[in-house]
Amino acid sequence: MAEVQPALIALDLDGTLLNSQGRIRADSLETLGQARAAGIEIMLVTGRHHIMARPFHQQLPGLPAICCNGASLYDFAEQRALAASPLAPALAQELADWCESHHLHVLVYIDDAMIAAAINAHITGLQAWAAQLPRSIAPEISIASPQSAIRQASCIWKIVASHADPAVLRVAMAHMPLALQKQLSSEWSWHNRVDMVAAGNSKGERLARYCASRGIAAARVMAFGDQQNDLSMLGWAGMGVAMGNAQSVVKTRAWRVTGSNDEGGIAMLLRSVLAGV
């Protein structure tokens, strides 16, 4: 049980709020609805582009969402970023070139679209998911030159580097030039994917800024996550919760560990929290 009642619950999406089928469980929606009725605010904090987070925000509307690992605080009602720290175009071009020189797959998050250098398993899965959505909210995921997309973009939110063999990606990241590393915040978001945003961005940093603007203390924030890009958020929040399916390093740094995203881990913990409200 939480020592204090949370004022805000921050939720990662993939591997956390979403089950293995990419859906929000009914018991999660029910308990989060009960939390909201008890006066607790709900916020999505994700590595996803806002176009990929929109369908889930419609199920849990309200607060703006932190997207792209903290690169933007996006207001879906106003359809704009309230705060943003995108990649500089020259830096994004250098990074895309570096990824391609190391034979890494490149996925660029720009404006209101996602541009992939080529089809891979990740992109195929995203496109299949998007095809099931209504046209009005289906995200645009295109196959094109990342460099061309960067030149034409107003905002470059994030670049994702991946490789079918995680070992290849680890070696490449270990040999990234120091001058390039210093300009980036690079975090693993899956076993074979690294998200790269402008230095200083993270889920925890953006969440801390948002809560400070609202007068919400870290001790009153409960955050749920499962991957390394959630560590900054779980470490900042007074109640950082790792999912049962989380990586070991995430579990060791969490305040609590709950059930997995397929076992109703969020509902499991929130029921005990709400019982003490």
TrEMBL record:
Pfam families membership: Hydrolase_3
InterPro entries xrefs: Cof, HAD-like_sf, HAD-SF_hydro_IIB, HAD_sf
Gene3D superfamilies: 3.30.1240.10, HAD superfamily/HAD-like (3.40.50.1000)
Cited NCBIfam families: Cof-subfamily (TIGR00099), HAD-SF-IIB (TIGR01484)
Protein name: Pyridoxal phosphatase
